[in-house]
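[Automated response] Your request has been received and processed.

Submitted sequence:
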Amino acid sequence: MPELFNIVILHDQNLDVRLCKRFAWDEISGRITSIEFADNKDYNKIFANTLTKHVLIPAFVNGHTHIGDSCLPDGATGLTLEQGFFRPHGFKYVELAKQSKQQLIDSMCDTMKYMLSTGTIMHWDFREQGIDGLHLIRQAEKQAMGIKSIVLSQFDQSPFVDLTDSSQVLPEKSKSELETLWNLKDNEAAADGFSESTMNDLTDRAWITIREMSKQYNNKLRAIHCLESDSYRSVSLARTGGRQSDLQRAFELYDPDIVVHLTEATQEDIDVIIQQQRSDDCLRSRIFVVCPRANATLGLKLPPIHALLTKGINLMLGTDNVMLNQPNMLAEMDFAYRLCKSQSGDNTHDPKAILSMATTINSYPTIYGKNEKGGIYENGPADFVLLDFSAKHLARTRNLMATIVTRLDPRYILATVHKGQTMFGMLP
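Generated structure:
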């Protein structure tokens, strides 16, 4: 049974900074077996006076990736969102079709290994290319070994040519594709859920059909991009006679578990989210994911993280397309924290809120059920990252949480542990 001694840990859901005499876990069960605290002090402000230079934090979960375009880094430079990423003529879709299957697998595998090296043990991937795309990412997942891919598949081809008639039903061919994605013989290889790019990609009746089908298949996850650009809202309003934004349609027709982006979210949109949260009656927690670095790279608005956090909305961080960003949660936290501070205009924001958005804490109820939670606690999942704080600019910190969020880079990750197994680096 592996053990660590005299380390600082971020304990439980509240990420309390505690000095730990002994920390142990079981590699077989993948659970934490023992946490022996040295005392009851909170070391957030006085870390520099401790003798240890090792810090244990919950492992990262990347709430939104598209790793299928790992073979196209910076390929969308100078292109708009529509030019780079919209189907069928966007740069991404055109170029992906030119790559061999092995090229796609190898590039995705490299990205997964990079994520492990930066402390990420799980990512929620919006996977293009239909059934073939699902097979490719599962092969890359096996090849990379150690990272969990929550795959949210997309139709290979758009089911509709003309979307002016919202009463069109989902074609039988598309229903069959969904059934295959969700019901492969090897259940572990099946897709975990579904996502088209926007609510404007399908008809109202099609979204309702997908929602009901997902419930029949053991409540497969439903995810959607919302309010990423102004066109998402304006097209939806035009189709509904000015009645509903794409966010409102998503709640009414699709009931998503995961909503991504919200870069164009107004106070009215936030009020809609709050009202929806009050009426939710489900086992899984609805999660909203923001990807500020990707939005900035595309020249879009930046998500109102401050306003969303202030209202208690359940937020996670994602890095979006590998074509735009390396999937580095350390960099995403740094950017998100500074953005949030700028939006708030004061000093009230605790960096702990940003760290929570990047870790296992928010993701476990959605993926593993209401009774499972992430974080570091006895009998909890052994999913954590060991940090090296021996460098002088880290060891002298006067606020450990702020330093973790804003000053770390991958050089200071000693080990990434998932389900009790060391997936990257070495433990001391």
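Summary generated for your ticket: The mean pLDDT is 93. The first helix runs from residue 81 to 85.
If you did not submit this request, please reply to this message.
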